[in-house]
Write a structure and sequence with these properties.
The complex is a heterodimer of chains A (312) and B (207). Chain A has 312 residues and is mainly alpha-helical. Chain A folds into three domains: 46 residues, no CATH class; 58 residues; 147 residues, no CATH class. Chain A is built from twelve helices and two strands. In chain A, strands 1-2 form a two-stranded antiparallel sheet. Chain B is mainly alpha-helical and 207 residues long. Chain B has two domains: 91 residues, Orthogonal Bundle (Rna Polymerase Sigma Factor, Chain: A), CATH 1.10.1740; 93 residues, Orthogonal Bundle (Arc Repressor Mutant, subunit A). Chain B has ten helices and no strands. In chain B, helix 9 packs across helix 10. The termini of chain B are far apart. The chains are: A mainly alpha (312), B mainly alpha (207). At the A-B interface, helix 1, helix 3 and helix 4 of A face helix 3, helix 4, helix 7, helix 8 and helix 10 of B.
Chain lengths: 312, 207
């Protein structure tokens, strides 16, 4: 007894239409010869197919011939693509504008923060350390100014005309001398009832206070070296200068005059010509040339872009 | 038309149409418009909608001729009309469903002899009754099974052509067709008494 293959409806349908592969078709026909049920199914399916095919197709109500107007009016319109040169010009214009804005901003910022003048210090002499040069310069200027003033009788140097570092030095020296003079006065007062007038305590205190303040702003230690020629004691001062220090410190200017004289002596011994003159040179500031060029380039590219867009 | 008198050469006509020859494409239209219209009708069950879908399908086919890369031109054309019919079905989703009485009216529209009011031959009446019963049964099938059955049994397309027209695999065509024929058999047996005698299925015929 042979085992009968179970044929599905899909196989039966394909067999009716002749769509089975040769091998399957041969097997199906073999089974068909032996299987009555299978033959019945095939016959029923053929009847259905025949019935469905028996009815003719519907006739269309009209002809569907096309005319040129029917085809033309329904053609979809495509969006015209922008030409490549126009896109390139627009990109170039945008980049130039961005560069113009950036360079303009940077130039403006640099010009506003850069100093306009640069001061060149003269070359220092071999006899004096390099760091001492600024103080020496100031001292030179001061000496020159005060030489002129000292030549004029009764002239008193104004503290305002004194460069600041020298003023501090002078005030320090002055304060020291005031303190020393106070000590001398005290000593003398103890020794003799006819003591010299006490130095102005207020002035001394002021000077001391000033000294204290100025010591905080004291010139660098190198500046003290410049004062080596300045005697620290009264006797040294009187001995070197040939003058004297008026113990009655009535005005700072008077003391300052004497100090100027002492300084003047020291200045005469110092070679002043080696310091040279202070020169000033204008500092090179950022130029507006590049932003102007970029701005002009931006305008040019924008004009060309506009012309290309209008030409189409 | 001069083209109609020539030997039918579908490949040559398609090539000429692809080059812009509208007359060549119109010759193709005349050859296939009945099948295209019937497929649209079976999908839409409405003469007016089928008419619009058929016209749209031919216009789309002419404009898209450059996309045809060979094979069955009929299958390619039927795919276009099927898509147009599905688009129409989507637009008609909100419309009421077509009643069975419309089939009778459409039968009258499709049969010009009835407009005369004269007596019809029996064969004609039988064919009308058969058509009505067949179309009622087809309308009850699922859309995908109906389309396969119409393409294979009503229009005579091969399995591969149907697969190309529906854009499905060959096995899918076979399975859908088998199920459609099985259901069609049951539906026609239910219509048994309404079918002409000689068209009734002999379900009780056994050896």
């Amino acid at each position: 007894m042979t085992q009968m293959q179970i044929w599905r409806d899909i196989d039966i349908s394909a067999y009716v239409d002749g769509e089975l592969d040769p091998t399957s078709q041969a097997a199906f026909e073999t089974a068909l010869a032996q299987d009555r049920t299978l033959r019945r199914k095939v016959d029923e399916l053929r009847e259905v197919v025949t019935l469905v095919r028996a009815v003719p197709l519907r006739e269309p109500p009209r002809n569907y011939l096309l005319t040129p107007s029917m085809v033309a009016e329904k053609t979809p319109q495509r969006t015209p693509r922008r030409p490549v040169p126009l896109l390139f010009m627009r990109l170039a214009t945008s980049l130039a504008a961005v560069a113009f804005v950036v360079t303009t901003g940077l130039t403006y910022m640099q010009r506003s923060t850069t100093p306009k003048m640069l001061m060149h210090a003269p070359t220092a002499s071999d006899e004096m350390p390099a760091l001492e040069a600024p103080q020496a310069i100031v001292a030179t200027v001061e000496v020159e100014a005060e030489v002129k003033l000292a030549s004029e009788p009764g002239a008193r140097p104004e503290s305002a005309a004194i460069p600041e570092p020298a003023a501090r030095v002078e005030e320090n020296v002055q304060a020291e001398k005031v303190v020393e003079s106070e000590e001398v006065v005290e000593t003398l007062a103890q020794a003799s009832p006819t003591a010299t007038p006490q130095p102005d305590a207020g002035a001394a205190n002021a000077n001391t206070t000033l000294n204290t303040q100025e010591q905080k702003e004291s010139p660098p230690p190198e500046a003290a070296l410049a004062l080596e020629s300045v005697p620290a004691t009264r006797a040294q001062i009187e001995g070197e200068t040939g003058g004297g220090i008026n113990d009655s410190v009535t005005t700072n200017g008077e003391v300052g005059e004497r100090e100027w004289r002492a300084y003047d002596t020291a200045a005469e011994s110092a070679p002043a010509d080696d310091y040279g003159a202070v020169t000033f040179e204008p500092l090179q500031t950022p130029s507006w040339r590049l932003p102007v060029i970029l701005g002009a380039l931006t305008l040019l590219l924008a004009g060309i872009t506009y012309w290309i867009s209008r030409r189409r | 038309m001069s083209i109609m008198s020539e030997t039918w050469d579908e490949a040559a006509l398609v090539q000429r149409a692809q080059k812009g020859n509208l007359d060549a494409f119109n010759a193709l239209i005349l050859h296939y418009q009945t099948q295209v219209y019937n497929l649209a009708w079976h999908l839409l069950h409405d003469s007016a909608a089928a008419d619009d879908a058929t016209q749209e399908a031919f216009i789309s086919a002419y404009k898209g001729l450059a996309k045809f890369r060979g094979g069955s031109f009929r299958a390619w054309l039927l795919r276009i009309v099927a898509n147009a019919s599905y688009d129409e079905l989507r637009r008609r989703k909100r419309r009421p469903t077509v009643s069975w009485e419309d089939f009778g009216d459409m039968d009258d529209e499709a049969n010009p002899h009835l407009s005369n009011g004269g007596a019809l031959p029996e064969q004609t009446i039988q064919q009308q009754e058969l058509r009505a019963a067949l179309e009622r049964a087809l309308a009850k099938l699922p859309q995908d099974q109906r389309m396969v059955l119409v393409l294979v049994d009503r229009m005579g397309l091969a399995y591969q052509e149907v697969a190309d027209a529906m854009n499905v695999r060959l096995g899918t065509v076979k399975s859908r067709l088998a199920r459609a024929r099985g259901q069609m058999q049951q539906l026609l047996q239910e219509e048994g008494e309404l079918l002409p005698h000689r068209y009734r299925l002999n379900s009780e015929d056994e050896e």
